[in-house]
């Protein structure tokens, strides 16, 4: 039984790692779409494609949530989709892909602290050292500074992305709470559909009707990739992985997102990062390996023994 549990733990980490890596492509695809439309339209189309990808699951899986759980799911979806993503991509609009990606490096510490406060998880010393090293790595990458010139990194954009991470914390923990009783597929599919319905109301009011004409195939392809790969696939993978591993440990794997995103920004978009970026990237990878192989987290059931 222990061998099976360890195997599922490994698969859980793999699912979270792959989800984080795909999330790292989100800012890259988003920047392509933002060249032809506003933030609201970009987020609207991203989740439209994601909802289309997940719609068969709405037919094949009955939700089975009670009234209180529907309220938790709706609240988490509101924070995690309209609020978080509109704020996050407004930040991207004001900064670079590499800097926006790197600001996501604050999320693992937030998730670990949130899991400690709200999910009664307790990491060991190795886990906290790994989290500190991971966050230090993200900070080192960001030491290139802010020039303030148009098209380059800005402090305002970076801070908006950080603010979106605080909001994302409650989305992730709300989903984790629901997945203690319901399947990750149900929470992912219905949560995304609810968030999309909210965007149908919020986006036209705040940003106007999303454009259809004069959008290039390049932008449509980026939006489809954002929806299918960076939203539908990632949320399914992450939510399933979160049922197999503690949230505080899975959180450090979110630092694959800033690593992948910053590499795309530098290698594909020609953005520049200082020499400390490579040291920071090494710290992020080292922390991820350490946390998944050496650290142990006690959950509330174990602490009761």
Written account of the structure:
It is a single chain. The chain is an all-alpha fold and 305 residues long. It is 76% helix and 1% strand.
Summarize the structure.
The chain has 305 residues and is mostly helical. Helix content is 76%, strand content 1%.
Q: Helix coverage percent of residues? A: over 70%
What is Rg? 19 Å
* Mean pLDDT value: 81
What order do the helices and strands follow?
HHHHHHEHHHHHHHEH
Which strand order does the major sheet show? Answer: 1-2
Major beta-sheet overview: 2 strands, antiparallel
Overall shape: globular
Given the structure, what is the number of helices? 14
Number of strands: 2
What structural category do the secondary elements indicate?
Answer: mainly alpha
Distance between the terminal alpha carbons, to the nearest Å?
19 Å
What's the topology here?
Blueprint: H1 2-23, H2 26-34, H3 39-60, H4 67-94, H5 97-103, H6 107-118, E1 122-123, H7 125-141, H8 155-178, H9 184-207, H10 217-242, H11 247-252, H12 256-267, H13 276-293, E2 297-298, H14 300-303
Antiparallel strand pairs: 1-2
Helix pairs in contact: 1-10, 1-12, 2-10, 3-9, 3-10, 4-8, 4-9, 5-12, 6-8, 7-13, 9-10
Keyword list:
single chain, mainly alpha, two-stranded antiparallel ribbon, 76% helix, disordered N terminus
């Amino acid at each position: 039984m222990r061998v099976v549990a360890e195997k599922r733990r490994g698969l859980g980490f793999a699912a979270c790692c792959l989800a984080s890596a795909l999330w790292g492509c989100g800012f890259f695809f988003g920047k392509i779409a933002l060249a032809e439309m506003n933030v609201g339209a970009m987020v609207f189309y991203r989740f439209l494609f994601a909802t289309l990808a997940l719609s068969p699951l709405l037919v094949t899986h009955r939700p089975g949530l009670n009234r209180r759980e529907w309220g938790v799911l709706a609240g988490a979806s509101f924070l995690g989709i309209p609020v978080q993503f509109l704020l996050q991509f407004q930040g991207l609009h004001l900064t670079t892909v590499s800097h926006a990606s790197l600001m996501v490096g604050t999320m693992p510490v937030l998730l670990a602290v949130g899991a400690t406060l709200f999910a009664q998880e307790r990491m060991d010393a190795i886990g906290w050292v790994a989290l500190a090293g991971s966050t230090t790595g993200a900070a080192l990458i960001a030491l290139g500074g802010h020039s303030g010139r148009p098209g380059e990194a800005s402090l305002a954009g970076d801070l908006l992305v950080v603010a979106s991470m605080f909001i994302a914390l409650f989305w992730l923990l709300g989903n984790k709470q629901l997945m203690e009783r319901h399947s990750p597929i149900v929470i992912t599919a219905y949560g995304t559909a609810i968030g999309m319905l909210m965007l149908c109301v919020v986006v036209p009011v705040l940003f106007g009707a999303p454009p259809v004409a004069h959008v290039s195939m390049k932008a449509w392809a980026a939006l489809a990739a954002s929806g299918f790969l960076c939203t539908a696939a990632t949320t399914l993978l992450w939510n399933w992985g979160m049922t197999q591993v503690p949230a505080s440990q899975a959180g450090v794997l979110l630092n694959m997102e800033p690593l992948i995103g910053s590499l795309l920004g530098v290698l594909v978009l020609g953005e520049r990062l200082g020499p400390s970026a490579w040291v920071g990237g090494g710290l992020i990878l080292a922390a991820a390996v350490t946390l998944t192989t050496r650290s142990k987290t006690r959950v509330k059931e174990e602490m009761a023994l």
